[in-house]
Amino acid sequence: MKKIKYLALIVGCLLSGQSFADDSEALQQQLATIKSFKAQFSQQVTDSQGEAIMQGEGNIALQQPMMIRWQQQSPDDTLFVSNGDKTYYFDSFAEQVTIMNTHSLIDSTPFVLLTSKDPEQWAKYQVVATDAGFSVTPNKGVESQVEKLDIRFNAKEQGLASLTVLDTSGQQSLFTFKDAKVNEALAAQTFEFTIPEGVEVDDQSQGD
């Protein structure tokens, strides 16, 4: 379940509420220029002491609104796919598929904000502009496995350069993107998932 929330801090008190609002609007405007995004990524994970504990790689595809495909190829083979309505998380080793309501995931991870324009959902997070990009943190009362999401954009061309995720255990994951394709047409099946025969299905989307 922790992996699912991924694929989801106190900021400077001297900044005013209007400043937070302006930074949030600036981030939303920059994300709005990315209609679609596809890239390979490398992942570096460190523990709360800063010690390296894992490296991985995979690929990502994003498309507005609310469509995500995040495939981890190593060290584990997992797939996170959202078609905007439902989200599927497939763990090939465990032979299990978890189905979730996409909109409910925003409460647990800010990742979904990358393709969302819903002001109600954005209001649940504070955004602060940094020297490198933007820092996103959940407001008090929002239950999230992610304490902070740092977003960096590619300075030379449109698109994301990296995402850094700090979770509630103090573990940090840095995702660095390469071979990016921005605003190119993506096949509709990119964001669809067919449940393989014989796997266990945990449908958590009912009643959300």
UniProtKB/TrEMBL annotation:
<keyword id="KW-0449">Lipoprotein</keyword>
<keyword id="KW-0574">Periplasm</keyword>
<protein>
    <recommendedName>
        <fullName>Outer-membrane lipoprotein carrier protein</fullName>
    </recommendedName>
</protein>
<feature type="signal peptide">
    <location>
        <begin position="1"/>
        <end position="21"/>
    </location>
</feature>
<keyword id="KW-0732">Signal</keyword>
<keyword id="KW-0143">Chaperone</keyword>
<comment type="function">
    <text>Participates in the translocation of lipoproteins from the inner membrane to the outer membrane. Only forms a complex with a lipoprotein if the residue after the N-terminal Cys is not an aspartate (The Asp acts as a targeting signal to indicate that the lipoprotein should stay in the inner membrane).</text>
</comment>
<dbReference type="Pfam" id="PF03548">
    <property type="entry name" value="LolA"/>
</dbReference>
<dbReference type="InterPro" id="IPR029046">
    <property type="entry name" value="LolA/LolB/LppX"/>
</dbReference>
<dbReference type="InterPro" id="IPR004564">
    <property type="entry name" value="OM_lipoprot_carrier_LolA-like"/>
</dbReference>
<keyword id="KW-0653">Protein transport</keyword>
<keyword id="KW-0813">Transport</keyword>
<dbReference type="InterPro" id="IPR018323">
    <property type="entry name" value="OM_lipoprot_carrier_LolA_Pbac"/>
</dbReference>
<dbReference type="GO" id="GO:0044874">
    <property type="term" value="P:lipoprotein localization to outer membrane"/>
</dbReference>
<comment type="similarity">
    <text>Belongs to the LolA family.</text>
</comment>
<comment type="subunit">
    <text>Monomer.</text>
</comment>
<dbReference type="GO" id="GO:0030288">
    <property type="term" value="C:outer membrane-bounded periplasmic space"/>
</dbReference>
<dbReference type="GO" id="GO:0042953">
    <property type="term" value="P:lipoprotein transport"/>
</dbReference>
